[in-house]
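[09:14] KT: can someone run the structure on this one? pasting the chain below
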Amino acid sequence: MDKQYDIKVAVVILNWNGKKYLKQFIPVLIKNSKLDEVALYVADNGSSDDSVQFLRDNYPKIKLILLDENYGFAGGYNLALQKINAEYYVILNSDVEVSPDWIFPIIRKMSTDKQIAAAMPKIKAFHAKEYFEYAGAAGGFIDKYGYPFCRGRILDTIEKDEAQYDDEREIFWASGACMFVRSSVFHEQNGFDADFFAHMEEIDLCWRMKNSGYKIMYYPDVEIYHVGGGTLAGNSPFKLNLNYRNNLFMLYKNLPAEKLFKTVFIRMILDGVSATIYLLRFEFSSFWAVFRAHMAFYKSLKKLRIKRNKLKHGNGNHKEILKKSIIYLYFIKKKKYFNDIYLNLR
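[09:31] RB: done, structure tokens below
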């Protein structure tokens, strides 16, 4: 018997000291969402500003979930989504401007195929709306060593949207900035890995979904606009540490056995090269961020091994994983755009 849900779609924003963005973007969200068909939630991660009181005073129809401390993106969403009985979750960053009729075109398409576990719209830059946005763009992919990239964004090169990625297609990961998720699959996969705290937890979740036989989709007929960097600045050593650490966590958990040692070993060498470059540039905080990431990985191996043993891996031959190194293609072969390396994904 199919599970009974209280509501079909719940849009859930995780907030941490984000009154500025709530004040800016909540009015547009309410205007462009059908509140008779959608529930809006804000889960607060122990904010110390007055964002919760602001919502109570101005938006009483928004449902609040109050957490007692900052559990990060991963842990915060896990705790919040356990309290929401909806068929679909829409995980939405607080610094996102949504467009009219942005929810149900994607929900309708997901409803036609139960193997679709997650999906994302086209994500463009709020401050330069003709360009894609770094965190997701037109769909996420990874290379053979776990480096993420997107259609529309290869490393630091961001493309202008000229309808070059207006085809619906299966992708490897959907951005946590705006991620549509089938709730049954989210809970089947035990949600995000809370040990990630923040960064790459959505890639890890999507990889687990892919290894379990589900699909992740990109739908370009919906556009949203993301500010980006609203919580941690791009050059934050803490963010850098999380990215290096979590990438190793993700590789160790999800790679098939025959690729595990070689891939992680090469990735750690590449991280060492990056750390050396930081050192030569006298960027000592960045160097230590990489060093601490590797130490954290070593200390977490026992726990990671337990997690890994509970997961499905298959042969790992997902067509959305680039069979070459994106670092090599970008820096040596000068392939700066997704369509330059597209044939390598075949």
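[09:33] KT: thanks! The two ends are 40 Å apart (CA to CA).
[09:34] RB: yep, looked fine to me
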